[in-house]
Amino acid sequence: MSFKTEQEAFWAGEFGDDYIARNTAQRLLPSKTVMWAQILRPAHSVSSVVEFGCNIGVNLQALYNLKPTLDLAGIEINATAAETARALGVADITEGSILEPVAREQVDLTFTSGVLIHIDPESLTAVYDNLVRTTRRYVVVSEYYNPSPVMIDYRGHQNRLFKRDFAGDLMDGYGLRLVDYGFIYKRDNWAPQDDVTWFLLEK
User: Fold this and answer.
1) Could you give the count of Cα atoms lying within 13 Å of 29 in the half-sphere of its Cβ?
2) Mind listing the domains of the chain with CATH numbers?
3) What is the DSSP letter of 102?
4) 3-state SS class at 171
């Protein structure tokens, strides 16, 4: 597979494999399930979902646990992660880059979780286009938030982690409206995550 950006090659390769070892389903699944229960509460009539950058499928597994009748799919650039997600048997997994145009029928909800922060800012529009084009109603972004774009050192690497107002980009650029949002603190007593802010947006 050929890549347009350094970030794609980075996550498709050895660093992406190491990420899998650090972030196991056993560790993440409980808090992800709690997060999705919060996100989906105000979302109506969701029966089909696509995740852009699904990694090993923890979010998809959480969604399946909450509602096994959901039609779930994911796209993942790292071959090892895609294989692991496929083995769960809860979603249709495609190996590929989310920077490439996605040709598939629309679903009720598309989302990213901890993915936009690792996309080259100049390539974000390609992912935004996919998220909006593929959904008929809802878009969810669960990412690190910052009011203005900023690059953060990521485990000794530069240009691999970027914070910004991703939801604001989608609202301003695509006319999406804010339905709900929430913050999950890393010191939460019950279901911690790494200071993640999620946004539920609607067309």
Assistant:
1) 14
2) 6-202 (3.40.50.150)
3) P
4) helix
Residue type, 39: I
Contact indicator for 25, 55 with CB cutoff of 8 Å: no
Predicted confidence (pLDDT) per residue in 66-80, tens digit: 999 999 999 999 999
Q: What angle do CA 200, 202, 203 make, to 5 degrees?
A: 155
Q: How far apart are CA 41 and CA 22, in angstroms?
A: 30
Backbone angles phi, psi at 54, to 5 degrees: -85, -10
Query: What does the alpha-carbon distance between residue 163 and residue 122 come to, in Å, rounded to a whole number?
Result: 13
Q: CB-based burial of residue 95 (10 Å sphere; 0-12 exposed, 13-18 middle, 19+ buried)?
A: middle
- pLDDT on residue 14: 56
HEC string of 53-82 equals CCCCCHHHHHHHHHCCCCEEEEEECCHHHH
Q: What is the DSSP string of 104-164?
A: S--EEEEEEES-GGGS-GGGHHHHHHHHHHHEEEEEEEEE-B-SS-EE--BTTBSSS-EEB
> Residues 6 or more apart from 182 whose CB is under 8 A from it?
38, 39, 197, 198
Torsion sign, CA atoms 24, 26, 31, 32: positive
**Phi, psi (degrees; rounded to nearest 5) at 72:** -110, 145
57-67 tens-digit pLDDT: 999 999 999 99
Q: pTM higher than 0.85, yes or no?
A: yes
